Amino acid sequence: MYESNDSSDDNDESLSKQVLPTADDANGPIDLNKMPTTGEEYLRQVRFQASQLPDFQTATQRKKRNTTSSNSKNHAWHKLFPSTTANTTTSDIPIKHIVSIDWQNEQCKLFSNVRNDFFQMRDRLRIANKKYKNAKLKTANNYWKFCFGDDILFQSPLPSLEIDDQQQTQNSLPTMTKMITLTQPQLHDLLQHEIDWLKQCGCSIHLALYTFATLVAIEKPINEDVMYTIRQTCLAWKQTRMRLINLSGNEQRGDDSLIKSCDVFVCIIGRYFGQFDLADTSD
User: Fold this and answer.
1) Which domains are delineated in the chain?
2) CA-to-CA separations, 16 to 8, 71, 74, 83, in angstroms, rounded
């Protein structure tokens, strides 16, 4: 962890001073894809990520006079939040594919409206339904059946969700009455399973709908463990997007609707949930 200095001279070097002691990083490999289980593991990951950044450089006195202290602090602060892996940085995405800031702002606004509607309707339904019960889900198989029903084999590739098929699969869609039965810990578990399913089973509109619904239902304030999983969700969809974009250069073309789903997740996690280091930018 690093501390920031609010002194008037605005020295960026103060941001690199270590505050909390950690074990030597040479003691063992650091797996950024593994959720830290202790404070020490978390600090080791933060130190490793910080070590991948370029050294801070102090601006000349002339440049400092032409730059306000607030802008300088914001610039240094964002340096502390690197992307977790080089394979998922925005620079790897073709410039022509990066969506506009206006589009991203519109998606965040729509997502915020959906969340507000969800929580209002959830409270009304829970008051109206006196026999309301939480879903009883324990295993990954339980969560799979909750989402996709019994007709799709556990952790098998998910079929495309065509418009003509939606009537037949309506019972396995993330409806309001289904999502309000999940507690906040269950939503966190579901989000973790959705990351695994994305990596193991491939992406589909069906899975994208459930991931979107899960993010909608997560309440604020968000604790550190849940935010970590939300960030991992963004990284997983970024990696998926890169694979789909790469298909465009091969005989098999990537599905534009799935690529757009990836854009949505990168947008709302990066901008609505404040993980700006993961957000797309055209700068």
Assistant:
1) 12-82 (no CATH), 100-278 (1.20.58.1070)
2) 17, 18, 15, 18
